[in-house]
Every structure is written in C-alpha cells, then in structure tokens.
Amino acid sequence: MLLALDKVTTYYGQMRILEGISLNVDKGELVSLLGGNASGKSTTLKTVLGIVRPRAGRVLIDDEDVNRCDVPTRIARGLAIVPENRRLFGQMTVRENLELGAVLRPGEELDEDFDRVYTLFPRLQERGSQLAGTLSGGEQQMVAMGRALMSRPRLLLMDEPSMGLSPALVQQNFRIIKEVHESGVAILMVEQNAAMALSIADRGYVLATGEIVLSGPASELLQSEDLKRAYLGR
C-alpha cells in the first residue's frame, strides 16, 4: 500500500482537528477526500506531509511508519503537493518555479520533465520567462501542478484544485488531473466539489468535523443519498 493513515488523531494546540481517521491510497489510485469548510481536509494533507504530527495513530508510506520523518524525507519518498491557493514564488519566472519542483534531484537532466509539463500545459512554455505573479489564476494553477510533477512523484497531494477557477477552467483542470492519474501517478485530492471530484476518482472519503463519516467506490458515492447528508453535516 502506497499511503495509509491508521487511526490518526491530530490537534492544533488544545483543539482536536482529526479524530481517529483511517484511509489509504494504493499505487496508481485517485482518491478524493471530500468535506465542507473546517472538516479537516487540509489538515489531513499536512499530516501526510509531516507538517502536522499525529498525537495518536500512524502515517505509513509503503507500509513503513513515517511519523518521525520530516517533510523533506517524505518528499524524497515520492510525495509532492499542489497546495491550496497555488503558493508560487511570484517574483520568479514560470521556468524557475518549475525548476524548484526538482530541487531534490540535483544534477539530473530535466529536459524530459519539462517536455512532459509543457505537453500537459502548452501555455507554460509560452510563459516560461514571465514572472509567475503576473499570471492569471488558471495559469498559476498550471504552474503549481507542473512544479509538483517535476519531482516525478509517486503520490500527488492536491488541495482544492478547483478553488478560485472559472467553471471552464475547472473542467480543464480536472481533465488534466485525470490524464496525470492515467499516466500512473497516484493522487489524493482534497476537494469541495464532490460531483466533479468523484467523476474522476476511484474511491472517496467524506470528512465531517474531523471524522470520516462515509467512504466507498466513487461510482457508489455519486449515487448515494447518504453523501449529501454526510457532506452537508446533516
């Protein structure tokens, strides 16, 4: 199993955010983690990366407990993230932002990686020398995804990839996510747009107030009356 959270409980100070959650992502899977605001979705990704450490439970990568591993070590194990709100370096060029994705691959030839990113996002090749902070929201999302792919991840973590995008760009974005998944990259995607996320996912989990209240194959969740109740916390 590529990733597993085993009965993970996390806190911010004295505030409990996650309560005994368990989930897993197998090699090559696309798993959606759904839920409303303040449900614990982003904290789950931070826990996977090691930014937040569990107070109880375990995070496992390739069946190995990585609770004591720092963020760079976990990234070196094959994790990459497309963060919420992109978080680019606005005063650096598009190409420089992409190069940062390969920072843990010093001395390696990157031409093949740039070709892959530019095939997915032809606009980025055109904008290579432009400052990332001057791009549109949709273009910045392309850079954030491309930067993550430059590390050649085995598991791509995505935090709200549709946030702030127009409906047309959301459709385009999810087509590209599906294409990345079909290339063999496993994805754990946090998203509020349940219908869109489940339309391309293999499986899904629903978080409400820090607990997983529903899970199953994406096709079944799409048809489930329980999804709406769980998702809305009713």
Explain what this protein looks like in three dimensions.
The structure is a single chain. This protein is of the alpha/beta class and 234 residues long. The chain has 10 helices and 10 strands. The chain has a domain at 1-78 and 155-160 and 186-234: 3-Layer(aba) Sandwich (Rossmann fold). It has helices at 41-49, 71-76, 94-100, 111-120, 122-126, 137-149, 167-182, 194-200, 218-223, 225-231; strands at 3-12, 15-25, 30-34, 56-61, 64-65, 79-82, 155-159, 186-191, 203-208, 211-217. Strand 1 (3-12) and strand 2 (15-25) form a beta hairpin. Helix 3 packs parallel to helix 6. The longest helix has 16 residues, at 167-182. The two termini are 33 Å apart.
Name the descriptors:
Rossmann fold, 6-stranded mixed beta sheet, 4-stranded antiparallel beta sheet, 234 residues
Secondary structure: elements and pairs:
Layout: E1 3-12, E2 15-25, E3 30-34, H1 41-49, E4 56-61, E5 64-65, H2 71-76, E6 79-82, H3 94-100, H4 111-120, H5 122-126, H6 137-149, E7 155-159, H7 167-182, E8 186-191, H8 194-200, E9 203-208, E10 211-217, H9 218-223, H10 225-231
Parallel strand pairs: 3-8, 3-9, 6-7, 7-8
Antiparallel strand pairs: 1-2, 1-4, 4-5, 9-10
Helix pairs in contact: 3-6
CATH fold name of the domain at 1-78 and 155-160 and 186-234, please?
A: Rossmann fold
Secondary-structure element order, N to C? EEEHEEHEHHHHEHEHEEHH
Helix content: 25-40%
Q: At the first level of CATH, what is the class of the domain at 1-78 and 155-160 and 186-234? A: Alpha Beta
Major sheet: 6 strands, mixed
Percent range for β-strand residues: 25-35%
End-to-end CA span: 33 Å
Count all strands and give the number.
Answer: 10
- Average pLDDT for all residues: 90
Order of neighbouring strands in the sheet with most strands: 6-7-8-3-9-10
Q: Which architecture of the domain at 1-78 and 155-160 and 186-234 does the CATH hierarchy give at level 2?
A: 3-Layer(aba) Sandwich
Q: Give the helix/strand class.
A: alpha/beta
- The total count of helices amounts to 10
Q: Report the uncertain regions.
A: none
Shape: globular
